[in-house]
Specification:
- The complex is a heterodimer of chains A (107) and B (112).
- Chain A contains no helices and eleven strands.
- With 107 residues, chain A is an all-beta fold.
- In chain A, the strands form two sheets. In chain A, strands 2, 4, 5, 9, 10 and 11 form a six-stranded mixed beta sheet that branches. Chain A has a five-stranded antiparallel beta sheet with strand order 1-3-8-7-6, with no helix packed on it.
- Chain A starts with a strand and ends with a strand.
- Chain B is built from no helices and eleven strands.
- The radius of gyration of chain B is 13 Å and the shape is globular.
- The interface between A and B is medium-sized, with 23 and 22 residues.
Chain lengths: 107, 112
């Protein structure tokens, strides 16, 4: 049983499209993080959400923490090829990473 | 300011051998964590070192051991290598009081 389940596992979209990635759990977390990992590199932290219902925006990326602090979502508006990578949610206090979503944005 | 550096970048070993991977943390960081990542999957936590002691450990056998030196750098040792140990090994550094991890580019280990 995975503590953090991400969906979808794979996503291939055209440049300019919108997409949402989900991170779900049956456990409650004090905070969740989102990372992006490009091929041949380590993950890079994008955001940390700590309050239930919190919404954070990073340019075209919008992150939301569920009201019950059990889930989170990442929405990308007008995806670009540079958004291609493996997106990972993480529970930092539990040292746990999600199953990952591999995103490919086709020019 | 150098980030997290790992060496070597790639390594090929045979079953039963032993391997040592090295990590230098980002300047100002005192905590080092090690992760194992299979292709396309999320990293799996191995252990974390702070003040030269193992502070937290994930679900990995005793074949996986580590060390942290006074300059905060760290080593990951794996004994009696198995084919299933083939993976990308990531080192992450942080300040003890913060939950923000900075990752190195990893060491790709192949066990034949």
């Amino acid at each position: 049983t995975q503590l953090l389940e991400q969906s979808p596992q794979f996503l291939s979209i055209q440049e300019g499209e919108n997409l949402t990635v989900y991170c779900n759990s049956s456990s409650v977390f004090s905070s969740l993080q989102w990372y992006r990992q490009e091929p041949g590199e380590g993950p890079v932290l994008l955001v940390t959400v700590v309050t239930g219902g919190e919404v954070k925006k990073l340019k075209r990326l919008t992150f939301q923490f569920g009201d019950a602090r059990k889930d989170s979502s990442l929405h990308i508006t007008a995806a670009q090829p540079g958004d291609t990578g493996l997106y990972l949610c993480a529970a930092p206090r539990q040292f746990y990473f999600g199953t990952g979503t591999s995103l490919t944005v086709i020019p | 300011d150098a980030g997290v550096t790992q060496s070597p970048t790639h390594l090929i070993k045979t079953r039963g051998q032993q391997v040592t991977l090295r990590c230098s943390p980002k300047s100002g960081h005192d905590t080092v964590s090690w992760y194992q990542q299979a292709l396309g999957q999320g990293p799996q936590f191995i252990f974390q070192y702070y003040e030269e002691e193992e502070r937290q450990r994930g679900n990995f056998p005793d074949r996986f051991s580590g060390h942290q030196f006074p300059n905060y750098s760290s080593e990951l040792n794996v004994n009696a290598l198995l084919l299933g140990d083939s993976a990308l090994y990531l080192c992450a550094s942080s300040r003890r009081t913060e939950g923000k991890l900075f990752f190195g580019s990893g060491t790709q280990l192949s066990v034949l």
